[in-house]
């Protein structure tokens, strides 16, 4: 394998040893020493302080790596730009997402996207939030869908939507006395949340964004859960709650894939509720091909419509039909009489109605063209 000068110097800096770097790169130490000497002669300076062991980068060496990395990235972006020009919108989109997020978003938008860009291949990386962010920072993925309170400065992100998280309660538990019969999702007052202390819970691990957020929420109310199960799958936790195994948390997105007839009790946590914001993140100043920008726009359009027409219950729907926005944005069960900003819930209708019980606007019934139009994609191009 042929390496660049940047990779040679980076390996020495990483190992703080020429011999160890040579072993890592499967080359001889004299050959690597010759490359280092040649570069130092070219720039009339030393890249490493050899007066002590292990060796360490000099300021000149740090500058070389910093600017070499920038040049390398610019060359990569140039290559991508030229490929986009001649490639007729064919390529690969690498997406990183926590499994509990991607499973509830991608099946709704990929069928629509693939109709316009059939030659685009997708690589999906489903890992914990921190792992996904690390992949993005390393340049191994193009986008990631995340929910985080803050991001590194070299990360750009675009808002998708904000969703509520709810408490799922065993129907045999005493907490059900606070359930309001006329509501699918009841309000658990702030003053009653401490009653969850020492109660059995099925929780997501802390390395998942939803697991971290819900654990922090419980700590805020000084609730120490009895963690009877830990699972990375929201649906598993929800179904265990339905079997009266303990409390769990469920999100707006995941509620689209459950049947309320078989569900546990559902509670909004306090007047303000527990919320998280979903974003699409990518590297600052990175080149994004047209077909990838189009995917990002459809993703944002999905988020916009999710905020306008939140819904649940897509069991029994043929995913192939979801390319039609009439199904994508108006499935079987849709909240009505809901204040989207405050997250208040007052019930459901088993009809394709939008929020507050109004019928869907006509421009949402015009087939997939309306989704492309909303996403800013010209199908005639």
Brief rundown of the structure:
The chain is of the alpha/beta class. The chain contains 12 helices and 15 strands.
Q: Topology of this structure?
A:
Layout: H1 5-15, H2 18-25, H3 29-43, E1 48-49, E2 56-57, H4 59-86, E3 91-97, H5 99-116, E4 120-126, H6 129-137, E5 143-146, E6 155-169, E7 186-188, E8 200-203, H7 209-220, E9 226-230, H8 234-242, E10 248-251, H9 252-255, E11 265-269, E12 274-283, H10 290-308, E13 311-312, H11 325-328, E14 333-335, E15 348-349, H12 368-374
Parallel strand pairs: 3-4, 3-5, 7-11, 8-9
Antiparallel strand pairs: 1-2, 5-12, 6-10, 6-11, 6-12, 13-14, 14-15
Helix pairs in contact: 1-2, 2-3, 5-10
Give an account of the 3D structure.
With 381 residues, the protein is α/β, with parallel strands linked by helices. Residues 310-381 have low confidence and may be disordered. The longest helix has 28 residues, at 59-86. Among the domains are: 5-77, Orthogonal Bundle (Arc Repressor Mutant, subunit A), CATH 1.10.10; 162-274, D-Maltodextrin-Binding Protein, domain 2 (3-Layer(aba) Sandwich), CATH 3.40.190. It has twelve helices and 15 strands. The protein is 38% helix and 20% strand. Helix 1 (5-15) crosses helix 2 (18-25), helix 2 (18-25) packs across helix 3 and helix 5 (99-116) packs across helix 10 (290-308). The strands form four sheets. Strands 3, 4, 5, 6, 7, 10, 11 and 12 form an eight-stranded mixed β-sheet that branches. Strands 13-14-15 form a three-stranded antiparallel β-sheet. Strand 1 (48-49) and strand 2 (56-57) form a beta hairpin.
């Amino acid at each position: 394998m042929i390496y660049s000068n940047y990779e040679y110097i980076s390996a020495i800096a990483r190992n703080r040893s020429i011999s160890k770097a040579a072993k890592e790169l499967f080359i001889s130490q004299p050959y690597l020493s010759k490359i280092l000497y040649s570069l130092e002669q070219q720039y009339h300076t030393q890249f490493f302080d050899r007066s002590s062991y292990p060796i360490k980068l000099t300021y000149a060496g740090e500058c070389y790596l910093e600017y070499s990395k920038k040049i390398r990235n610019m060359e990569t972006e140039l290559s991508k730009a030229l490929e986009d020009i001649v490639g007729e919108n064919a390529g690969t989109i690498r997406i990183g997402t926590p499994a509990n997020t991607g499973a509830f978003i991608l099946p709704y938008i990929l069928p629509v996207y693939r109709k316009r860009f059939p030659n685009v291949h997708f690589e999906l990386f489903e890992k914990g939030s921190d792992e996904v962010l690390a992949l993005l920072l390393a340049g191994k993925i193009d986008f990631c869908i995340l929910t985080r309170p803050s991001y590194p400065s070299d990360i750009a992100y675009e808002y998708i939507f904000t969703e509520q998280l709810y408490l799922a309660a065993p129907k045999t538990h005493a907490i059900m006395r606070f359930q309001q019969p006329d509501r699918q999702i009841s309000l658990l007052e702030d003053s009653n949340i401490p009653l969850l202390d020492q109660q059995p819970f099925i929780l997501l691990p802390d390395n998942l964004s939803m697991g971290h957020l819900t654990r922090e929420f419980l700590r805020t109310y000084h609730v120490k859960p009895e963690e009877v199960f830990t699972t990375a799958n929201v649906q598993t936790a929800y179904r265990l709650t339905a079997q009266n195994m303990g409390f769990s948390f469920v999100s707006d997105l995941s509620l689209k894939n459950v049947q309320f007839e078989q569900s546990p009790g559902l509670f909004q946590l306090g007047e303000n509720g527990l919320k998280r914001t979903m974003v699409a993140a990518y590297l600052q100043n990175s080149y994004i091909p047209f077909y990838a920008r189009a995917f990002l726009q459809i993703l944002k359009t999905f988020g916009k419509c999710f905020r306008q027409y939140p819904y649940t219950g897509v069991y029994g729907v043929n995913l192939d039909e979801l390319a039609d926005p009439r199904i994508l944005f108006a499935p079987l069960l849709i909240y009505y009489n809901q204040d989207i900003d405050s997250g208040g819930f007052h019930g459901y209708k088993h009809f394709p109605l939008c929020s507050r019980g109004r019928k869907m606007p006509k421009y949402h019934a015009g087939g997939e063209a309306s989704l492309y139009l909303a996403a800013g994609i010209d199908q005639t191009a």
